[in-house]
Write a structure and sequence with these properties.
single chain, about 180 residues, mainly alpha, 7 helices, globular
Length: about 180
Amino acid sequence: MLVLWNTLIVLLTVVIMEGVATFSHKYIMHGWGWGWHLSHHTPRHSWFELNDLYAVLFAVLAIVLIAVGTAGVWPLQWIGAGMTLYGLLYFIVHDGLVHRRWPFRYVPRRGYLKRLYLAHRLHHVVRGKEGGVSFGFLYAPPVEKLQAELRRQHGRPANAGAARARRDAARQSAPPEK
């Protein structure tokens, strides 16, 4: 029975972490923490960017929770494990799929991964820390809602951001020209 509880705590922590990450992204990273996060919204010139310090902070917190939990404070190790699992999913989906920080390229053509990819591309359409949309990392609202929000905030054509994101995706996945 304890294994079931521990598994439930890990999975619930992953879900809660998406909410924490969304809140942090919108109000901290695009707020008073913009100094670090700005590097994420500019072209990358090296493997690391200052924004990666946010991942380091969450990793340190997860390590501390796991250490305190294994020293006897249940269920902290399982909360730390859930944070670690969320971090792995973030690394795979956000850093790998969306921002292509991996050596291979994959652009999703349909389904949820395409929606997530396009939603984050729409997030990067806005230059600067204000007026953005889609602050989640593993959850993305429907692209049409994000386009409508961008149009409401900035007066842009309804499909400008998504059209650019689709063009960029097609260009990056097209076979090289001869």
